Amino acid sequence: MRLGIDVGGTHTDAVIMDGRSVLASHKAVTSGDITHGIVAAAKKVLAESRVAATEVESVAIGTTQFTNAVVQRRNLAEVAAIRIGAQSTAALPPFMEWPADLLESARGPSYMLDGGYEYDGTEILPLDERGLDAAVEDIGKRRITAVGICGIFSPVNPALEDRVAARLKEAWPDLYVATSHELGGLGLYQRENASLLNAALMPLATKVIGGFERAFDALGVNAPLFISQNDGTLMRGESAIRYPVLTFASGPTNSMRGAAFLSGISDGMVIDVGGTTSDIGMLIRGFPRPSGTTVEIGGVLTNFRMPDVMAVGLGGGSVVSDNGERVGPVSVGYELASKGLCFGGEVTTATDIGVASGLVQLGDAAKVRGIAGDIVDAAMRRIEALMADGIDRMRTSKEKLPLVAVGGGAFLVPETVPGISEVVCPAEAGVANAIGAALAQVGAEAEVVYSRGEGSRERALEEACIAAKAKAASAGAEPGSIDIVEVDETPMSYLAEPAVRLRVKAVGNAAHS
Questions:
Q1: Which residues fall within 8 angstroms of residue 54, CB to CB, at 6 or more apart?
Q2: What separation in angstroms does the CA of 113 have from each of 136, 137, 169, 176?
Q3: Are 233 and 477 in contact (CB under 8 A)?
Q4: What are the C-alpha distances in Å from 480 to residues 85, 130, 173, 352, 477?
Q5: Which parts of 73-158 fold into alpha helices (H)?
């Protein structure tokens, strides 16, 4: 028995699954106290399915708390930056181009140390040990709680980052430390940003994950806790404490994985229509297509893995105005059940248009009969145009692909869309995100750089596969079930000798003990 829960900005969805069968599902308005809402949703599906708490083998949760903390500039720790490579990177100091309000919330001191490696892992300069000692002492004096460490080409050779991290933890055992080679790609500045954001979130992650664990213990669920990652896989709760940034955008990826399961479509497009936005992405072999560019998080450029998903300001709670010519981006969000016309409120929403059009039966249909027919028609045309435009922008070829519509507002997706071979809206589409969380496997990635030469690729591939499988096992995968599901090779430009960046992804079944 697996329990899957996904917390969105508008709804918290939960499912209890036996193998690949959904025994019970529940959709509720997201509560101010997210942990309370999660537990309430879990109690609901356990009661409806008549499954005892002790029968649950694993719990998987997708949460927006860490994304929201960065976007809203709340609950962030003051984070210090240690840069290894001062001799060649001083012109681009840490925290450069961060928004002013985020700097005010999270920026701590910066320490620039000589050292680092070339792209092939050879040493540029030895580590500035005296500078490191001074930094360690100053961090203690300032009572800094979190540190992000970034070195030149550390994904190729992490030894210096690991040495600095060990020195910090030796001096200050309670310090939260994030090393950039575990999070981002080769770009120094964006990778450093990822480590700094991650470190700033680690104290909050400790509190949140600890709260989840205590809540489920009190509920009688004695099962491992997994947290959704943004590549459609899971990691154990303790791993989420170390890498909270890897949960960013996990909601859309849960929906996409759930869409793939419910529809049986592994290659196609997905639109997840929520209360405020519609997230559009593409499935490749059952997993979300990853973004191929740097990603901006809360105004900060990063290069850690993220799904290629576009959010359109259209959802079930979108406000309809201008006689139906404007739908969204303003939304009543989680207040739909009180403000929407069909629920007795006074705001015309996209859901009311759906009810008036006969697309769905929600609330009291008599309460939307006052919407003029031309307004209904105009609003439906606008909804269809917004969706068609977003879907077209996410397509990468002229080939027609199937579209899977999920989410609580999936009824708004038209039956025919330009460039789409068929529109599929499966049963249980409204809780596809929770199903995606419940069914997800545990995953991890490893990255190496190799120079082209006889046997070098084979050695690099073997090294990366071993590292990726070890990371997956550490994140909570059953060692015997781990497979390599993706190998990506990218030639590197502007180097004296030809080199290739090799990225490997490993996935395995969640361990239930």
A1: 220, 221, 222
A2: 12, 14, 18, 20
A3: no
A4: 40, 45, 34, 51, 9
A5: 86-89, 100-106, 129-142
Tell me the two tokens of residue 234.
Answer: 């899971």
How far is it between the farthest Cα atoms of the chain? 76
Cβ distance 316 to 347 under 8 Å?
no
Alpha-carbon dihedral 322, 325, 330, 332, rounded to 10 degrees: 80
Q: Are strands 116-117 and 123-125 parallel, antiparallel or unpaired?
A: antiparallel
Structure tokens at 240: 């989420």
Pairing between β-strand 295-297 and β-strand 287-288 as defined by DSSP bridges: unpaired
Q: Side-chain half-sphere of 428: how many Cα atoms within 13 Å? A: 25
Digit-coded pLDDT (tens) for 384-416: 999 999 999 888 888 899 999 998 889 999 999
DSSP alpha helices (H): ranges in 220-249? 237-242
Q: Give the pair of three-digit tokens for residue 36.
A: 């309370």
Helix (H, G, I), strand (E, B) or coil at 363: coil
- Span 105-140, pLDDT tens digits: 999 999 999 998 877 677 888 899 999 999 999 999
Q: With H, G, I as helix, E, B as strand and everything else as coil, classify residue 223.
A: coil
* Residue written as token pair 């697996």: 2
Helix pair angle (34-49, 188-219), 10° resolution: 50
d(CA 311, CA 331): 14
The angle, 0 to 180 degrees and rounded to 10, between the axes of the packed helices 159-171 and 129-142 is 40
The model's pLDDT over 262-311, given as tens digits with 9 standing for 90+, comes to 999 989 999 999 888 888 999 988 888 887 667 778 788 887 777 888 88
Is the previous residue joined to 224 through a cis bond, with omega within 30 degrees of 0?
A: no
pTM for the complete prediction?
Answer: 0.81
Q: Which of 262, 283, 362, 372 is nearest to 323 (CA)?
A: 372
CA dist 2 and 7 (Å) reads 17
CA 158, chain centre distance (Å):
25
Neighbours of 98 (CB within 10 A): 20
Total H helices, total E strands in the chain: 14, 25
- Give me the DSSP letters along 310-351: EEES--TTEEEEGGGTEEEEEE-GGGHHHHBGGGT-SB-BHH
H or E element: which one contains 58? strand 58-62
Residues 391, 513: Cα–Cα separation, whole Å = 41
Contact 352, 340 (CB under 8 A): yes
As a whole number of angstroms, the distance between CA 139 and CA 165 comes to: 13
- The sign of the CA dihedral 419, 424, 429, 432 is negative
β-pair partners for 449: 501
Give, in degrees to the nearest 5, the angle at Cα 247 between 219 and 147: 105
Question: Quick check: 257 and 232 in contact, CB under 8 A?
Answer: yes
Pull the structure tokens for residue 48: 């409806």
